[in-house]
Amino acid sequence: MATLRIKEPIIGSRGAVVTIKVNGISIEGFTSEPISVALYANDIKSFDRSKKLYRPRGFFSLHPQAKTVTVNVNGIPAMNPSEIYLTEGLNVYIQQKRPLSIRFFESMIDTSLLHKSIVKNRLIWPMALKFIANSINNPELVEYETPHTVSTIVEKADLVVIGGGVAGLSAAIEARKYGLDVLQIDDGVELGGEMLCDELEPPGISEPGCIFARNLRKKALELGVKVLTKTTFVGFFEDAVFAFSPYPLGGGTSYIISAKAYVVATGAVDLPCIFANNDLPGIIDASSALRMLNIHGVVAGKNVAILGATERGLRLAEHLKKHAVNTIILDKSKAAGKGDIIGGVREIIAIGKNRVEALEVKHEDGELRLNVDCVVCAVSTNPDIKISAQAGAKIAYVNGLGFVPIHDPFMRTSKNGLFVAGGASGSPYGILHVIEGRIAGLSAAVALNKTGAEAERETLMKEYRSLLQKFGIRDFKEKVFRSFETGVVPDDKIAEPPTLFCSEPRRDAFICFCEDIRLWDLHRVVSVYGFACLEKVKRATGIGTARCQGRLCLVNSALYIAYVAGLSPNVVGMARQRPPAISIPIDVLASMEVSKT
Amino acid sequence: MRVVIVGSGIMGLSSAYNLAKLGVKDIVILEKEYLSYGSTVRSASRFRVHFWTEENSKFAIESKKIMVKLSSITGWNIILTTGGYLWLLFTEEQVKAFREKNKMWERLGIPGEFLSPSEIKERYPYIYTDDVLEGFFGPQNGSCFHNYVAFGYYKAAARLGAKLFERSPVERVLVENNKVVGVMLPNGKVEADIVLLTAGAWTDELLRGLGIELPTEPERKEIALTESYKYFIEPLIIDFGTSAYIGQALKGEILGSIEVPVKSGLLPLENTLDFLIKWARAVYKRFPVLRGAKIMRCWSGYYSMSADSSHIMGRDPDWPEGLYVAYGDSGHGFMMGPLIGKLLAKNILYGEVDELMRPFLPTRFKEGKLVPEKLVIG
To answer: What are the backbone dihedrals phi and psi of residue A522, each rounded to the nearest 5 degrees, phi first?
Structure first.
């Protein structure tokens, strides 16, 4: 097997070497790696088959909340391979079969289960029903020994910072300086977020990102910020706030949290690009490509196509080139085309059987075929709004930022005691994350009546506004601030969604990887049934209702609906976000004590 | 003649469809949020025919007949299954009461089956039955996909000319000379000859605005849903001890709920960890195979509870002329909806009160002729 490992990861250590079995075959990995990365490094890219069409599926994103594939680990079904880290002797089973009957019925399978052709015949339906139920590719539940222990830990703090990137770290440091008890929660192995994966200088910062992030982390720990890693902030229930760590395997540890203020610094989500066969294994997001390279020492491929000549795409290309990876960048804008950037791209078709092997690209001046083994989507990101929306903060679409929690220059949201910062508030990567984090931390201190915090915050405001100007997002952010003041959402319209590389609603361009919902399904619901509200489209197609809870599909869907229907994304709306942010085993909930808070 | 229907849940939509089918050209449906925002799309999407009272059972039997045909009527596949309902009974009294009721159900042509714990184990090996005394299985009951029931009715009604206006919250019903003349929206009024209130849990407020008090109140209920697993739980299983229920959707998600005491009223549609923990505990004990199943999402909706836990439909002659209601369904509105719309349409147009409908008139409360329904799930 070809290996995609480079000699050493740039940052941090790999931990101990362990051997795990994948479908009975031994492979080597390291204890610092989640299963997804170990498989990818050993050139196993397809982990699972999709739910209805049995298409090969790998991970799109390594983020634990972007759970689109599952594997069987030690006999436990439906585990998230991006959430479980390697231990010696781990037994992983991945699904690679596709039943013959599916091949035969493929053209008939209606992924929204409408099945119009057979529905009118009431005699055929009961038979069709059985067939559908049996042929949906869901993991089988088996009984296994669950680690049923009372594992609830109560954590009290003045401030909880959700997310351990530089925005979160900066917020924690400022708040800690003013004497707040700070608890920081992150779902990665270590704090530092995306900047920890950056050996270049981030915009506005004059040292390599990894060094900057590491120093911030050191400072936070020295100041006594309490940290929970490998832990996901699950959400705001009416009676409790809850976080969860998926260990021990098969069960987990739960945390009941009680705090006076929250800073949401959950970063941004890379939006999948929409093109033919965009679900093939080997098509991943920019954050995963960076993380694999610099934290785990695994290159995403030998010939990598990067979609989007954005700051993000260009930086990634620079990283990959340092390790002798051939990169080519594709962008919609004609003006971007120069050097190894192909501009004016209209349409992309991915080709490959069980993994991406080539791209057929149609651009304004012709067509070309690129032999690639990896495609990275770096066209557009959207703030991760899951937690802030769930908490009740108002969300609106603002051109240039995406769907953002509406906030003021002090990073306060419409929900009392909830602050946002960094990518989660729509700001671009770099020094802005740091300053927004600091402002959010100070705002939390102000909210808790700490003297001096307000004055210090005031001194940051001028710098903040000039940085917004420098990064070219001042107008967009001012719109957000104005909306916070007036309560009126902007009626921004959009042109074509930035992620769309499809000239027609194709049946092989996927919007939702969990439920196999394609551009064609979405288009039909909008144009034939006339539904132009995301909540209704969600109920008609099932979009955003499966494992990843809409993390990867809802924003793309909302933008596409707005585009097809000619409406503002704010009219289409965002779907309601509900807890839990990641799935919690029944075993864990059953062993919990109801808190009296 | 213009009919204004307030609320676009199954009650409003099936009424709109049936009115349109009977030739009403001018139907306006006003919805405060978006199509079927309320309880219909938040329901557990199940239907049953076994009710404690004969009136409800008879009503449900006829309603099911429509539900079975609904896919062909509307063209939206409602994905109907008849996996049955299984009640797990734990005490002699419960078994006795079900045996007594089964005599009535046999008479109505919907006999159920009593299963011993070993028979339950044989059919459904995933249920822990050691503490179960007996099970009652109602094979006539089943599930259908609530979203497509609502959307199908809407599309069918729209094809016949009914018009839906979303984000149009009705503030009050306008009455002149003891006759309804329209409804008031924040930005103006809509004239009407007939106003049908099918706003579920929000109906109380509108009636109160007219000085009409019926013994109904909203109760918030929560539902939890797991990730998708291979389809294996065919019936809806109700634990009569803890009142927890679970069922599996065809797509694989396992869904269920448990009764948690809450204050009534229009509580915010949020979720509590308390509910999740209680449901998880009930499932942990009853279904060992589900211990590792992962809860993916939860949501909440309202039961519009009436004093006797039966739905209210039609009008009271003392009310202003032209005012009708269909609500107070106490958690089984989704299954009764198809027939409610059909009978109500005839009632509105021809003044006809069907025998099936008569027990559910709003006048029953002041006349003291209640339909005390005890079999409320969730």
So the answer is: -65, -45
